[in-house]
Each structure stands twice: as C-alpha cells, then as structure tokens.
Model the fold of this input.
Amino acid sequence: MSKIAELCAGKGIPEPIWEVETMNKKLGRYLEPASWVFFAVLGAFVVAAAAFQNFILAGCEAALTILLLALYLRQRKQRKAVLQNYLQSALVIPEAGTPALPPFPTVMVRMADGVITYANEDFASAADLHDGFTDRTITELVPELKLDWLTEGKHEFPFDVTVKGRRYRVYGIQNRANDAAGTMLAILFFSDLTELYLVRDEYIRSRPVMSIILIDNYEELTKNLTEGAISTLNAQIDSTITGWTEQYNGLLRRLERSRYLFLFERRDLNRAIQDKFSLLEQIHQITSPAGLAASISLGLGVDGATFDECYRFASLAIEMSLSRGGDQAVIKDRYNFSFYGGRTREADHRSKVRSRVTANSIMELIGQSSQVFIMGHKNADLDAVGAAMGIGCLCRKKGRKFKIVLDLDNNAAEKLIAEIRQVPEYKDAFISGQEALLLCDSHSILVVVDTNRPDQVESQSLLEAISKVCVVDHHRRAADYIEPVVQLHEPYASSASELTTELLQYAVDKSDVLPIEAKSLLAGIFLDTKSFNVRTGERTFEAAAYLRQLGADPVEVKVLLQNDFQDTMAKYQIIRSARLYRQEIAIAALNAATSRVLAAQAADELLNISGLSASFVLYPDGDTVIISARSIGKANVQVILEPLGGGGNAATAGAQMKHTTVKDALDQLMASIDRFYEK
Done:
C-alpha cells in the first residue's frame, strides 16, 4: 500500500499513458453507456416482421442483429482490455518499471455522476454484480461512499464501508482522461478488513473482567450467631452467588469470609448489565435469624492492560460502591465509573472505629499544618456551617489558626452566621475564596465538609491550590470526587454535622467545645434529618444527646429554621404550583427565581401530603435550572438526579443543570424518573 500511497500523493504516475493517441481516442467512446436498448429494439423489429409473415425481412434483420451483437460483445471485450491496460499503466511502479495491478477489489467510476465504467473480477464478486455493472453507480452499491473526499485532495475515505456484509477501507486517486469532454475518473481500491475486525472483536470479547463481590453487612448478619448458624448462612450465600456466576462461565473464588473474586470474559459483561445484576436482588432473599437481609456490592474492573490493572480497577470500583452506600454494582474502566443498582436506602452499619481513627489522623494533620482552611459547598447551609464549626473546634484544640471559606452574601445560614460572628473566637473566621488564596502556603491544609465533588465546593481554585485535603461528608460519592489524604465518608450518616460530632467525641474534651459550636452542629443535624424525621439512626440520637450535654438547645435551633411571613407565603405558593406525576411524585416547576432555602422547604413540605413518596422543585437561576428533591418512599432521588449531574443521598438530593430552560429540565427530569421506575 506504500506505493499506492505514493501514487495517491501524485508521485510516480507516468505521463506516457496519456501520450498513447489511440487510447485517448478510444477512452472517451468506451466511457459511453452500453447499447442494450438498441438490441432490444432490433429484436422487436425481427418479431414484428415475423408477425407480418415477411420472413425474408425478418431473417435479414435477425442476421443483422446477430452480427451487431457479436460486434458489440467483441467491442465490450476490447473495452474491458483497454480499461484494464489503462488501470495497469496508471499503476506502474516507477522503480521497477513494471505494472502492479492491485490484488484487491478495484473499480473505476466517473466523478461527475459516479457511474461505474470498470470493475475487476474481485469487486464484481464482492458486490455480487452477476448481471454486470453497466450504468450502475457506486452509491447504488455503497450508499455511504461519496466522492467529495477525492476532490478535497484526500486519498482515503474517512469511514469504513460495508459491501454485502463485509467491511472495507477505501482508498482512491483521480485523473482526468484526455478525451474531448475531459472526463474526470476515480479509481477506488477496496481493502477487505472483515477478518481483521472479526479478530479485533473476538479479542475485545475475550478480554478479562475482574470482579470483587463483597458482602456489605456480613458482620451484622453473623452477629450473635452460633458456628452452626454461621455455616448455614455462608452456605446460602455461596449457593446464591455461585448460581448467579455459573451462567457467565467464569472463575469464582472465595477470598475471605465476606469477599469473593470472580473472573470472566468481556463478552458476558453486557449480559450481566442487561440482567441488571440480578444478584443484587437475589441476595436480599437471604436473611439472618434476626430478619436482617443480606446485601452485597460488586466492583468490576475492565479494559486493564494487565490482570493487576484490572484488579486495581475492581478495587476502586468496590470502594466507590461502598462509599455510595453499597447494594450496587460499579464498573470501572480506564476512564469512567458506571453505576447499576443502588436504588435502596442505605442501611446503617457504620463502625465507630473509623470515626476514632479518622479523628486521630485529622488531629495529627492539623498539628503538622501552618494553618487550616475549612470549606463547604456553594450556598452553604446549616449542615455545612455546623460541620465547619466542628472542624474549627478541632483546630482550636490543636492551637492552629483556621479560616472558614464562605460567601457571606450567598448562603442559606444567615441567622446562624450572624450569631457565630458575635463570638470572639469566630469574629474574623469567615473569609472568601480569593482571600484564602492569598493566605495559603505549602504547609496549609484544607478540610472540605458536606460535599465530595470538586465542582460543588465554595472555591475550586483553593481546592486546586492546596495539596493536603481532608473530606468529611455523608453524600454518596460521585464519579468525579475529591481524592483526599484523610477522609470520613459515610453515606449512612444523617449529616456531615453528625460525623463531625463523632470526631469531637474522640478528639476533644467536652469543656473544649463552645456553646455556639454545639448549637451549630445540632442545627446541621436538625436540617438534614428534618427535625429527626428522616435518615435518623441511633448514632444520630447519640450525637444529638452529646451536643445537648454541651449546651445546645433544640428550641433555639428550631428558631433558626423559622421563616418570616413573606417567605412562608412564598413557600406555599411553590407548593400550590406542584403537579402530580406517576400518582406519587409531586413536581413544582417555577418560571421565576426563588431562594434555595424556600425551594428545599417546599420540597420537604410536599412530602407531608398523603400518598406522596418524592417531591421535586425546579426553578431558574440565570441560565441554570436548580432542582431540589426529597423522598420518603421507594424513590431514590439521588439515583434519579445523578444522570442530570446531581447528587446527594436516597432521601435528599439536588442538581444544577446549566445552559437549559425549566421546560427542558422538566422533560429530562421526567425521563429520568421513568427510567428509574422502569428498571
């Protein structure tokens, strides 16, 4: 093909081909369409003469027709030979001085109309041209093959084409015939890549998929059980997992009590996806004597260059699954995460050991820093501010300077922040992201609270500027998450304030906590649990009791959550505009902007209506549409909003859809809801 490429570049095409005068004269004639129509007419005259019983005339006409047909067939043969000689001469290899006919399907067409003027036997066979190719166009045989790429100076068609079920790569050159009309010709070469693609596809299908299967709540399932009961439970789990994996012809091995390794081929991965990883549901049928249903996480690594890389991808996938609450399958390839399942609510099976270890790690990191910056998400709410205050308490205990990065003009905790700024220890604690950039140095650390997404933090520039980052968050991990040096990420927790409160219990004495810090933390828990109505476990009440001992007054916290008369009326206007969808979902789509707090409160209030399991409030903010979502039923609003770029947890989630309208956002939201219920 290198010599053809040189030919295509205009190097080595011999001029003598166009100096042969006889060929120049004939070429124009040979490019004319065939004359089968004339023979049909002559045949009709023969039949007509015979019908009028003029047999002499009929015989003469028949003889003339046979003679002309013989001459036509001879001319056709000569035409084929001349065009073949032309093609052969056009492909002379200058270095060797010998013709090189291509050993693959070749066709010659007129550039003006795409009519085929010559095709070798290989092309005729490939295109099934048993009836000849006269007056056939190349686009008739290969619809996707246009010829404009040749006029643009290219010598390779940018896409593969299909001819009779086989795939070809097309190369070409064009030349002008020295006939009277100056006919422009294109010579096209078809390189058959079918076998190559078959080999490639088989290679892809046979690539390994490394899967880690983890029993999420194994410790809870086996708690207080006898050895015999544990053996029975293990046998049930083994049988269920083995039954599911057998259909994929892979290798299953149990590595630990709660951990399996499953190796299979990529060809079966699509079947598992179409099966919706039914093992996730099958395992729920296994329950402990106490009635606790088993739950598993699947982490699958694909597209790794080696087995080790596939296993590393699988480990990252299983970590991502656990950070999102488990009970789901996560696929990690070289570039992205894909999520399947995770529709159920998170079951609280946290260990206090992690909180204690994380508290020690964070305190050590704070002690090694020059200063600490604490930052939540944009438009910080009571939970973000409360968690930030808890981290501030840790910094005070360690004797390190700290600043809370927050936009004082755009937040949802104005009342609380006003109280905080009255306390001497926090008088100058709040700064903007730009101010923080000027103050930070190489020994600074950043603690991010109440979010794990880099695009949601108050200042992305500050996040990029500081190398040592800690994360304290309770939201399900997104595909684009912050990679910290230390983290306390528990999607089972009610709030970031609850997690921070647990850190305080292990890191400081009760006397070290200021009343305003305890109040702020309790306010964060109040907000995210809707006054202990949702996402509330025993650990939540333990944290609240600890804060109450420190002086946090629930009545005072309740005052922080109150609205004035105008805001209350605005909230109920939002509720009034809501419409039912699927009989159990309320959607309020606003055409005018409102505050995030009111939208969130309206979404909460809608769930007080009997029969509703989820609520969504949409409103415009410039060219962005904000969505606030709540759920108390089977609808997982985090899973619904995640395809729209949102996040959160099963009961509380939100999204920001940029460069769109409320109507378009509403259409996308309803489509996502439909997909959720159809799974």
About this structure: The CA atoms of residues 297 and 322 lie 7 Å apart.
